[in-house]
Design brief:
This protein is mainly α and about 160 residues long. The chain has 7 helices and no strands. The protein is globular, with a radius of gyration of 18 Å. The mean pLDDT is about 90.
Length: about 160
């Protein structure tokens, strides 16, 4: 399709990683100003738009722009969900609980890569991007089930008592 060389793909990855550092820097003040529930909803929305942007891959310049933006946005999104995970950890078992959550996250990531590879071979690029976008958007239905305000309130109380 685009026939990017391995070296260019490595450069794309490096650029996305640099942008991810920028996203982490942006997340710190953003998380202090915005409620976590709004950040989670915003992250899902931006994730939907960012995933759809992969349909605009046309060449070197679009790949550079999309991967850079997705690197920063992806980090902000990941940090919002890690923030939620950290705040939801019960006291005195934080490390075990967080390790369990990260194991589930890593298992899901690996599983999605395997399934995505098979779907790419079976359906092609565009349907795979649309499926990914649909599943990202479907996560909005899960947000009300999490009770983020209660988790955030409990985390604030715990930090105030320390």
């Amino acid at each position: 399709m685009l026939k990017f060389g391995q070296q260019f793909i490595g450069h794309l990855s490096a650029l996305a990683s640099i942008a991810a550092v920028g996203g982490a820097i942006v997340y710190a003040p953003l998380s202090r100003r915005m409620p976590l529930k709004r950040l989670i909803n915003l992250s899902i929305g931006i994730g939907v738009v960012s995933t759809l942007a992969y349909l605009l891959y046309r060449g070197v310049w679009s790949a550079l722009a999309i991967d850079t933006i997705f690197g920063a946005v992806g980090m902000i999104t990941q940090l919002a969900f890690l923030d939620l995970a950290a705040k939801s950890c019960p006291r005195r078992v934080e490390a075990t609980f967080f390790a369990l959550l990260m194991s589930i996250y890593n298992g899901g990531t690996q599983g999605s890569q395997v399934v995505g590879g098979y779907l790419y071979d079976w359906l092609g690029y565009t349907p795979l991007v649309l499926i990914s976008t649909a599943f990202t958007a479907a996560s909005w239905f899960l947000v009300p089930l999490v009770r983020i305000e209660r988790i955030e309130s409990r985390a604030r109380q715990a930090s105030a008592s320390l």
